Amino acid sequence: MGTTTRRRRLASLLGATALAVSAGAALACPAGAATDVDFPTHCIPPAVAGIPPIDGTTTANVAVDNHSPKVGDTVTVTYTVVKPAANNPTAIALPADIMTPTGKVTLGGAQTGDVTVAGPRKNDPVPGNGAFPSFSMTGTFTVTSPGAITLSPGDYNIHTSYILELDTPCTVTNPPAPVSETVTATDSNPANNRAISLSSASGNAGDPVTVSGSNFTAGATVTLAGRAGDTQTADTATVTAAADGSFSGTLVVNDTTTTGVVAYEGSTWSADKGAGPAAYVVNDTTPVPDGSQKLTTTVKAGTLSMSQAGDSVALSAVDFGKGGASTGALNSVTVKDFRGGPAGWSLTGKVTDFTGPGAKIDAGKLSWSPACATKAGSPSTCQAGSAGTVGSSGATLASTPNGTLAGGEFTADAGLSLDVPAFTPPGAYSGVLTLTLS
C-alpha cells in the first residue's frame, strides 16, 4: 500500500473522530455554576471521512462569573459540552493537543444575541474506540439591558490538526437549546461627577454670588439654593446647563444663617443629581453698640483629599492548572474631609482587565472586602463598602453620610482577591485599580 493511500485512509478515520468529539465531551462544570441540558445535535463530518452526518444528543451547560451584573459590566461565559453523542468510532489512537473547539452561546430575555466562545488547543490522548476528552470554551459579553438574561448552548465546531486540518460543525437541531443559566442585570449607578464653585466664599446680606457648575446633564434646569446646615433657605435661582454640562448663574443670598450653596437637577435636592454644598458665609453687619468692641475670628474651610500608602500591590501567585484566589491587601488610603460643610463623601474604585502574555484575566474576577476606620473626634463616621466584585464598573470602598456638620479624618483598607482561571497561561498579569473620591 502506498504512503498517499495510507494517509488518505487515516485522514478519513480522523474525520470520523472529529465528528464524535463535536457531538459531546467536556470539562466538569463547577458545582452549582450552571444546569446541564440535553439537546439534539446535527454534526457534519469532513467530506474526506466518507461517512454520513451524525444526529445525536449533546449534554452541555453554560456557566457565568457574575450572576448579578450591572448594565455596562462584562460577563465571562463558559460553554462546556458534558456528554458526547458517540465515542471514538475507530481503533486508531489520537495524540494529545490536536483539537480546538469554537462555538456560540445564545442570549435571550432582556438581551438577545450570540456570544462567541473558544477553547484552547488542548486534549488528552484518545485511545482507539475510547471516550473522548473533555473540552470547554469561554467568551465574554457586555450587559446592555436590565432584567433576566437567559443563556443557552448553541452551535459549535471542532477543528482537528493531525495529518490534515479538519472541521466538524455541529448545530442545534431545534434552536434555541434549553436554557442552562440565567443572570439578572440591574441598572448601573454611574458616579456623580457634578461640581460647583463660587465666585466668593462670603458676602453681605443681599449680595449676589456667581455659581459655576460642570458635568451636569446637558439642557437640564439647575436650581441654585442657599443652605443653613441641612436645611434649604428661601434664597433660590435657576439656570440651564449648556450642551457640555456647564453653567454659570447668580444667586442673591439674603439669609444670614447661610452656611453653603448647592446646585441640583430636579424639583428637590438629591445627592445623586446635585453638587455642593460649597461653603458660604453671610457677614454680620449688625452695628456695634457704643462702648463695645466686636471680636471676630474665621475658621477657614479646607478641602476634601486623599493619599495612598503606596501605588503598587503584589498579589500572591497561583499554580497553572489549579488557578484560584490570588490575594493581597490594598495600600491604606487616608481621606481628609476638612471642608466644614454638611456634605459627606464617597470613595469608589474600578479596575481594568489584568493583561499578561497573550491573554487577560477579566476585571470582574477581582473582588475586595473593604474596611474603614474613623479618627477620634471626627464629626462623621466612616462606613465601609460592601464586600464583592470590583470590576470595570466599580464599587464603593468607603463613604460618609451627609450631616449637619460633616468632616474628619479616615483610613480605608481592603483585602483583595483575584479569581484566576485554572489554565491561565503562565506569566505576570497586571491591572490598574483607580480610586475616585467625590
Task: Explain what this protein looks like in three dimensions.
This is WxL domain-containing protein. Keywords: Signal. With 438 residues, the protein is mainly β. It has three domains: 183 residues, Sandwich (Immunoglobulin-like), CATH 2.60.40; 85 residues; 134 residues, Immunoglobulin-like, CATH 2.60.40. The strands form seven sheets. Strands 1, 2, 3, 4, 5, 6, 7, 8 and 9 form a nine-stranded antiparallel beta sheet that branches. A hairpin with a 1-residue loop joins strand 7 and strand 8.
Features:
438 residues, mainly beta, Immunoglobulin-like, 9-stranded antiparallel beta sheet, 6-stranded antiparallel beta sheet, 1 helix, 5% helix, elongated, disordered N terminus, signal, TAT_signal, WxL domain-containing protein
What number is the mean pLDDT?
83
Name the structural class: mainly beta
CATH classification, class level of the largest domain: Mainly Beta
Give me the CATH fold name of the largest domain: Immunoglobulin-like
Which architecture of the largest domain would the CATH scheme give at its second level?
Answer: Sandwich
What's the main sheet like? 9 strands, antiparallel
Uncertain stretches of 5 or more adjacent residues:
1-33
Q: What is the gyration radius calculated from CA atoms? A: 31 Å
- The best one-word shape is elongated
Counting H and I runs of at least 4 residues, what is the number of helices?
Answer: 1
**Based on DSSP secondary structure assignment, what is the total number of beta strands?**
30
How many independent structural domains?
3
| N- to C-terminal distance | 79 Å
Beta fraction: over 45%
Portion of residues within helices? under 10%
Organism: Streptomyces spinosisporus
Keywords: Signal
Signal peptide: 1-33
InterPro entries: TAT_signal (IPR006311)
